Amino acid sequence: MQSSKELVTAYMEEVWVNRNVDALAAYISADTFIQHNPHLENGLEALAGFLPHLFNNMMPEGTWEIKRIIAEGNMVVVHSLAKAAPTALGMAVVDIFRVEGGKIVEHWDVTTDVPETTASGNPIV
């Protein structure tokens, strides 16, 4: 059985980076998926209904780049850079997942726009 980190890494690569919505059921629990994103309802169906709209309408030329993944037990944190278009500064995204029984069962996320500059000179992603 793969680790929680391996499962979430495969999910992020296959679904978010490669935009393969058909792969959702391999990673997300169909019965018990709890969603904490304020714009989505609980359940696999809500996510499966939203992703085509996101990928095809909101960011048709967009990219998703995973920067780092941190795991402790069944909790996995992914820090990513999402760009709606190649020239966009993008958004820093932090996704937090809880894994049980070889599937993702819970999700939280936090996003913020990438600024042109930072006081420290360091990038936020």
Characterize the structure shown.
With 125 residues, the chain is of the alpha+beta class. The protein has one domain: Roll (Nuclear Transport Factor 2, Chain: A). The protein has a five-stranded mixed sheet with strand order 1-5-4-3-2, with helices on one face. A hairpin with a 2-residue loop joins strand 2 and strand 3. The mean pLDDT is 97.
Secondary-structure element string: HHEHEEEE
Our estimate of the beta-strand percent is 25-35%
Radius of gyration, in Å, reads 15 Å
Query: What is the molecular shape?
Result: globular
In the CATH scheme, the class would be: Alpha Beta
Kindly give the count of domains: 1
CATH architecture: Roll
With strands numbered from the N-terminus, the spatial order across the biggest sheet is 1-5-4-3-2
What CATH calls the topology is Nuclear Transport Factor 2, Chain: A
